[in-house]
Every structure is written in C-alpha cells, then in structure tokens.
Amino acid sequence: MGRGDLTRRELLAAGAGATFVLVTGCGGSPREEITAAKFPGGTSYDGPPLTLDFWNGFTGGDGPQMLTIIDAFTKEHPNVKVKMVTARWEDFYTKFPAAISSGKGPDVAVAHSDQLPINAAHGSIVPLDDLVADLGLSESDFAADVWQAGIYQDRRYGVPLDMHPLGMYVNTKVLKDAGLDPEDPPKDRASYEAALKKLKSKGIQGSWASPFLFTGGLQFQSLLWQFGGELVNVDGSRASWNEEPGVEALSWMKSLIDNGYSPENIGQDADNIAFKNGESAFMWNGAWGIGDYGATEGFEWSLTQLPQIGTEKAAWSGSHNLVVPRNNKPDADRMQAAKVFIDFVTQSPSWAEAGQVPARTSARESEAFKKLEAQSALAEEVPYVRFPPPVPGLADVRESTLDQAIAQALGGGVSVKEALDDSAKRANQLLKFNHEKYAA
What is the CATH number of the domain that holds 176? Predict the structure, then answer.
C-alpha cells in the first residue's frame, strides 16, 4: 500500500462501476424515471401465465435450498414460473448492471445490502416503497437494523431476505482437552483472554488473527463498532476507522499475535483450516461456516455470540436483499408477479436451512427455525448486529484501503496507527470523489 496520489485503477474502483452505461428515455435521468415508477396494487397475481427471471449468486449449498422455495412458490402460484440463474457473486456484480443497461436484465434479483447503494445510485434497481406498502410491510415485520440497511437516500431499494452475522464458533474438543468448559464459552474480554492464556499453556494458539477480509476484516469491523467507532462519517465523505476506536480494535487483534495466541503471517483460509484441524479453539466466522463445519465428518463444534471485547455488544452482518432491476419498458404483470414472489420468499423459514438467519420476524419466530440450533444461536445477535452504512462504492474503497491496512498492521510492517491513518488518507480521496458524484 503506497502513499501519495490515487492511481487510475483506484479512481475507477471508487466509482465501482463508473463505466456503466445507463439507458434513459424521454430525455430524463435514470433516477427521475425510477422515482416515477409505480408497482400495481394488491398482494396477489391473477394475470396470464408468465416466467420470472430470477438472478442471484447462490452457487453453493444455498442454491438447492432456494430451488426448494421456488418449487413451493410455483405450487401455490401455478401461473407464475421462476427461472433461476446463478453466477459467482464476483461475476454477478459485473454482469448484472451490464445486462440491465442493455435491456436484458432479470425481473427479480438478489443483492447484498452493501451493494444496494451503488446499484441504486447507478439506476440499476428501482425503489420498492410502493411494493412494501402494498404488502403492508414495515420495520416491525423485520429485524430493525436489517430493515434500515435496505434504504438509500430515503428510498427503499431492497426487501431483506436474511442476515448472516459474524458469530464465534467453538472447537469443543479443543476446549475440553484444555480443561475449559465448552458449555460456557467466553463472553467478554477478560474471560476470552483468560481462555486464550490457558490454551497457550496447552500448546494451542486459540484465536488466529487473519489479515484477510474473511475473517480478519470482518472481525475488525465488529470490534470497531464494539469500541464505539464507525467506518465513515455521517455523510460518507470521510473515513473514521482511524480514530481511537479503530486503533483500539486493531491493536487488540495485533495483541493476539504479540501474546502468542495467534501465529504470524496467516495465509488465506489458514485460520479456518486450523480451526477444523484442532489447532485453534475459536473462530470468528459468518453464517456460511454452519454448512462447512456441519459437513466436516467427526468435527465437534458449537456456535455462540461474539464475545464483547469493547464497551458495547456489536457484530458485523451482511444481508441478502430481494431487488427489482430497472426496466425501460416495465410490464405491469411481471412487476406484480415479482412482488408476490418477493413476499413469498422472504416469509419462508426453510431458507434458514442454508445457514442464514431470516430477516423477517415471522420466519425467525417459526417453530421450524427454532429447531435449527446453530442458526438460532446466531439469531441471539439480532438486537445488536451492525451493517456497513449505505455509501455508494464503500465496499470497493474499503477493499483498496482499510483491508490493506489491516494486513499491514497484523504483519508488523508498520504500526497500527500509521497503517490506519495512511489508509484513511487514501480512502478520503475516494470517498470525496464518490460523495460528489452521487450526492442527491
């Protein structure tokens, strides 16, 4: 990570799609046309038979689970077929806006909550205020924070399907062998560090500090919020992760290495491999770990809430949202069918079997969900999950600045403060560029 002026590559990354071509009609801007778009009223579809194109990045075990939900939907709505098309998420976010610009986008899609702002700013997705009003949906029907995460510039662009927060996985065999109680995992800084100290005395480095986004970057964001900090300022024009809470968060992660609780220079996914191999005891990982660990034969593990290391409880979370792509020639029947489909999918408790925590309260409180032990443990974090703020291009800015700073600091090349300050300085140029470009 160098210093000085931004490179051309970084400036392009700041826009996270600065080269998109948006098709406009009647001389108006994409945002103006989208604001004027209206969904048909009602909560059911009685029109002619049709097939909805549904795009997402569910290429793993979550794909078959979504297909079971689609099957259930078509049985209940035989005049609406759903064709699901999947692509790896990194490919999806490249193809999605390009398809919309060329008039070949889907009727419904899934996007992560941190991708809603940039797609809304580019006019790739339409506001869903009318849709949720027709369905009678409000914040009380969802977890509050995930509902708010679907809003950009006072308009709703996503209906949340789930939450996938960071939780603490426990290698129960390692804890038992070290004389620790796996039924009473550490819940705060003192008990966590005491457990790590005892594990170290048994030859186990209990909590590996990864320099990669998965999982070190997500751990840092959780700790940043736990220490009372924020990624950016209120309007998203300036980074704030280098302020005191961020320094405390990253310093604590660095202390895991300094105290011998974590090895140095961890490779990509090495922390996950070590956890499954019994070389560590605790793994701060997302909901996707449920499928991984559950499928590992003979592996003894449990899942609980993140320990409170800072002054308050907080856990990073992402969310899949149902979105409706922009269409220059909107079809009322297809829009109505899409609305009914979105309502059905977000109510399905079976989506949790893919390892997710349902965003919709009715699904989360269902008996079917309560039977899922690991997912229910993650749901305990719902009152304090945190989502990255709705700033267009923030994910790309973070990747080229903060993520590199975390790797540098954990590697010992520079001090925590210097790494964070340098990354914030570079990020501020990118954030200012985006703020000026996308400000209402």
Answer: 3.40.190.10
Residues 34 and 108 in one domain: yes
CB 387, CB 146: distance < 8 Å? yes
d(CA 179, CA 427): 45
Q: Is the domain of 207 the same as that of 298? A: yes
On whether the CB atoms of residues 319 and 143 are closer than 8 A, the answer is: no
* pLDDT class of 37 with cuts at 50, 70, 90: low
For the stretch 227-253, pLDDT in tens is: 999 999 999 999 999 999 999 999 999
pTM, whole model, 2 decimals?
0.92
**CA gap 275, 271 in Å, rounded:** 6
199, part of any domain: yes
Integer distance in angstroms from the first to the last C-alpha of the chain? 32
- Alpha helices per DSSP H over 259-312: 270-276, 289-294
pLDDT tops 70 at residue 18: no
pLDDT of residue 440: 59
- The angle, 0 to 180 degrees and rounded to 10, between the axes of the packed helices 416-438 and 402-411 is 180
- The CA-atom distances, in angstroms, between 35 and each of 30, 120, 128, 326 are 9, 11, 10, 11
pLDDT at position 35 over 50: no
Q: Helices H, strands E: what count in the chain?
A: 20, 14
Which phi and psi (to 5°) does residue 39 adopt? -85, 145
